[in-house]
Amino acid sequence: MLPVEAVTLRLLHIDDDARFAALVADYLTPNGFQVTHCPDGGRGLAALEQHPYDAVLLDVMMPGLDGLEVCRRIRARYSVPVLMLTARGDETDRVVGLELGADDYLPKPCSPRELLARLRAVLRRAQPDAVAGALAVGDLTLDITGREVRRAGARVELTGIEFDLLVALARRAGRVISRDSLLALAGRDDVTVGERTVDVHVSHLRAKLGDDPKSPRRIKTVRGVGYVLVRDDD
């Protein structure tokens, strides 16, 4: 069964500033993020134990467990990307945060647009399968390093953007990705987005993968939301 609710990008925001957290959620939600806010480090770590997240937005200055200690504990157990929010001009927090394994930092307060850009950048850099350099979904195998796709052993010739879109779908096989998020997840913010940009590229991708255009079984459309690459067990 396909998920009933579309999953785009799950962001865990750990921050004791409720007003700032509300602003972040208001801006990121229409930009393809599902934001969960936790007001302190303890509850943030508990949330990570219960649910998978695509990224963590972590404030340094919090009562109790501060952000640096939370970052240390996250890195001891998880590979999720961490973007830290530090006091403006506080170089010590930035250096320590990076040494503890934070992927990037952003001085606070910050503009929502810059926050979105930084989040997308750390997500593009986060490649949990980078060691293996390959993905497999059903009869599809993707060589990430060599940028090669094979279907049932036969090579499939794809354009650069088609390959990037397929990788984004394969990394989240079985999960619905919204049209708004797909290009960003594919690392193709350079592509000019028109009303049907993603639809056209997915249509070409389906054809090359041998998917039936009238009744696709490999890359399915979730009406009004986006696309999902179906796993064998869905």
Annotate the secondary structure layout.
Blueprint: E1 9-14, H1 18-28, E2 33-38, H2 41-50, E3 55-59, H3 67-77, E4 82-87, H4 91-99, E5 104-108, H5 112-125, E6 134-137, E7 140-143, E8 148-151, E9 154-156, H6 160-171, E10 177-178, H7 179-185, H8 197-208, E11 219-222, E12 226-229
Parallel strand pairs: 1-2, 1-3, 3-4, 4-5
Antiparallel strand pairs: 6-7, 7-8, 8-9, 10-12, 11-12
Helix pairs in contact: 2-3, 6-8
- Tally of individual domains: 2
Radius of gyration: 19 Å
Name of the CATH homologous superfamily of the largest domain: Response regulator
Please bin the fraction of helical residues: 25-40%
Mean pLDDT: 83
Give a quick account of the main beta sheet: strands, pairing sense, barrel closure: 5 strands, parallel
Instruction: Report how far apart the termini are.
Output: 5 Å
Q: What is the 3D form? A: elongated
- Contiguous runs where pLDDT drops below 50 for at least 5 residues: 1-7, 128-132
How many separate helices? 8
CATH architecture descriptor text of the largest domain: 3-Layer(aba) Sandwich
CATH topology name of the largest domain: Rossmann fold
CATH class wording of the largest domain: Alpha Beta
- Strands, total number: 12
Q: How would you describe the oligomerization state of the chains in this entry? A: single chain
User: Which structural class do the helices and strands define?
Assistant: alpha/beta
Proportion in β-strands: 15-25%
Please provide the ordered H/E string of secondary-structure elements.
EHEHEHEHEHEEEEHEHHEE
